[in-house]
Design goal:
- It is a single chain.
- This protein is α+β, with helices and mostly antiparallel strands.
- The chain contains 10 helices and 20 strands.
- The longest helix has 38 residues.
- The protein is globular and about 85 Å long.
């Protein structure tokens, strides 16, 4: 009579084995999720290393983040700027990493059940990164796909290999006709831990190597900035007039320090451009003498120094995205004339100047405005030092009187003369206006909203601006009372903001303070509130306070 053989039931089946099998299955899923996380980490680390050899901007996180910014509706971008300010890029990058972590965990779990499908899905994520990198405006070609592709291959291979370490061990039976049965102990955890640790160590090494190589490029750019000596300008800015910067507690400084100057752009990572290799090309319609200039070429030209207030079109009424600085640069109109460019009013065929940044950004500026006598320039210095990297080193463009999105190209590398009919720039494609003169605006800096000043004399103060027109009058209203004229600080130039103050005899209770400005053309700041899209916000700034 044949001996009865015990059945080789899979873990979790049969009476008495369900609890242990269920725990082993849960542990396997958890370690599968860990495998996915390690595979994702390896993919990003390898991609970082490859990006250092191709170019840092081709890395998957930067490429996907940039693509996300490009495809995000303008209203959402404005919301992000309002909510997170200059930290909006950090929030986006953290969000991308969080999504990638979640995907990696899910694909790791999937791979424990469908090893091949789960592993190959990592490659699909890499394909998204490759597509994002090659579709960016600053893409240099198919090579930009390499970091994502190579990283994905590394991630696929690692996940497939790690999940293979989770396969159950088999125990031989006494009957060679029977297949081996899974051992009671399941998969070998020790082997998996060793493999996972080795993978994490190798991935960390690749990531560190990539960071070091990328850092060397940044260090080279920083060294080039440190070596810059800006020659004395041939035309200096007039000294700040006496009375232009009154000492009032709580008011914004007349000149904005570089570290406090607003930054609003789409660059996930601030470009670190080496001044020794930087070049600017000027070409297009009406250019009879095309030029390619180096940074030293610009420094060798006559420089001018001017105090100019810049404003961002994303600035809400009463918002912080405006700043005043002393700039040094090459007059842009003169440079264009050297290239044979004429404004439309003098028969020139081009009415739009398209400025291109090293990160692919394009801005369109009316040629007439650039060449009408205002101090448009290619700036190389800011408040007595070379431009900081976050503000466009080595060279940025600025045109007084226009919002930044149509005039203030940072990290500029190319100027093309064309027409508004022939080309729509980055923001115009996203429903912003082609032309955007800065609107007459004013802001209350002190007291702050919901402040509780004591009854008596309260100093109400702030700034007003209407670049290239100048501020003629500022008025303050308490609640629904009459408009009272504020005291204006001395004007520096019509291209700078102007501080103002008003001594309010405050009475106890809740009050609303409102300000309005009138520019030199006689236009008074409108009370009608509009969004920032398509050409800048309008309305009057007000604050609510409670007087004790």
């Amino acid at each position: 009579m044949e001996a009865q053989r015990p059945s080789a039931a899979p873990p979790g089946s049969g009476s008495g084995g369900g609890g242990g099998g269920g725990k082993r299955s849960l542990r396997r899923l958890c370690f599968g999720a860990l495998s996915g996380l390690l595979a994702g980490y390896a993919a990003l680390a390898v991609a970082e290393l490859v990006a250092a050899a191709v170019r840092p901007e081709s890395g998957p996180v930067i490429a996907v983040g940039g693509a996300a910014i490009d495809r995000t509706p303008s209203a959402v971008k404005d919301w992000a700027i309002r909510q997170f300010g200059t930290n909006d890029k950090l929030v986006l990058q953290l969000g991308i990493l969080a999504v990638l972590c979640a995907l990696a965990l899910l694909l790791g779990v999937l791979a424990t059940r469908r090893r091949r499908i789960g592993s190959l899905a990592v490659g699909a994520v890499g394909a998204v990164g490759a597509l994002a990198a090659t579709s960016r405006p600053d893409s240099t070609g198919v090579a930009d796909a390499l970091p994502s592709v190579v990283g994905a291959v590394a991630g696929v291979a690692l996940l497939y290999w790690l999940v293979g370490r989770l396969e159950p061990r088999t125990a031989p039976t006494t009957d060679v006709t029977e297949p081996s049965a899974p051992a009671d102990s399941g998969w070998d955890r020790r082997t998996f831990v060793i493999a996972a640790t080795a993978a994490a160590a190798a991935s960390t090494g690749a990531g560190v190597a990539g960071r070091v190589l990328n850092g060397s490029q940044a260090r080279s750019a920083a060294a080039s900035r440190k070596d810059v000596t800006i020659p004395p300008p041939s035309s200096r800015a007039t000294p700040t007039p006496r009375g232009a910067a009154p000492r009032i507690k709580g008011i914004t400084p007349y000149v904005t320090p570089n570290d406090d100057f607003y930054r609003v752009d789409t660059a996930l990572v601030v470009p670190k451009v080496d001044a020794t290799t930087w070049k600017l090309r000027i070409h297009g319609k009406g250019v009879t003498r095309e030029q390619t200039l180096t940074f030293d070429d610009l420094l060798g030209m006559p420089l001018v120094e001017r105090t100019i207030t810049l404003a961002c079109v994303s600035n809400e009424v009463g918002g912080p995205y405006i700043g005043n600085a002393r700039w040094i640069g090459v007059p842009l109109a003169e440079l264009l004339r050297q290239c044979g460019v004429r404004p439309p009013s003098k028969g020139g065929p081009a009415d739009q100047l398209v400025a291109r940044s090293v990160d692919g950004m394009t801005l369109g500026t009316p040629v007439e405005d650039v060449m009408d006598g205002r101090d448009a320039m290619l700036a190389v210095g800011m408040n007595g030092e070379p431009l900081p990297f976050v503000h466009g080193f080595p060279v940025r463009m600025l045109v007084p009187g226009l919002y930044g999105y149509v005039s203030a190209c940072k990290w500029i590398r190319d100027i093309e003369l064309t027409t508004f009919d022939a080309y729509d720039t980055y923001w115009v494609k996203r429903d912003w206006s082609q032309r955007a003169p800065i609107k007459t605006q004013s802001r209350i800096d002190t007291p702050k909203p919901f402040a509780r000043p004591a009854a008596g004399t309260v100093m109400v103060a702030g700034v007003a601006w209407a670049q290239h027109r100048g501020i003629d009058k500022v008025e303050v209203r308490v609640d629904d009372g009459p408009w009272e004229e504020a005291r204006l600080a001395t004007e520096d130039t019509r291209d700078t903001w102007r501080q103002w103050s008003y001594e309010w005899q405050a009475t106890k209770g809740g009050h609303t303070l409102t300000v309005r400005a009138t520019d030199r053309t006689g236009e008074t700041q409108t009370e009608r509130r509009t969004r920032t899209i398509p050409d800048g916000a309008s309305g009057r700034h007000s604050v609510v306070v409670t007087v004790d």
